[in-house]
Amino acid sequence: MGRYTDNAPIDNTCPKIDSVISFIKGIGWNLEDEDELLLSKESKAIIEVLEEIRTANSTLREWGNQEFQEKEYFEKERDEMEGKIKDLEKEIKSLEDDLNATTDAYNDCMDELNSTSR
Q: Which of 7, 9, 29, 88 could cross-link to 68 by cystine, CB 3.0-4.6 Å?
């Protein structure tokens, strides 16, 4: 996923992980052979954990970006629905006004009819 679509609140951690891995690989330990072999195994294990962290961070970033995109979609949909609700409320108000005017006109006609028939 490109950075231009990345909405994560933190920077990409891959460069930091790469830096730590380079640091671990570049240390001159000056140890005896057996110690160096043990340290080499431990260094590889640390690097494996860092790679697992990299993968987990990537998965988390992708999930967060998907959630952000869904949020954006639903916010837009909500805004559109709110606009439709306002339009429908205006239409209801207009229809109520028309109904009240028609009812008033009907009542006026009935009053006039009743007064002329007496």
A: 7
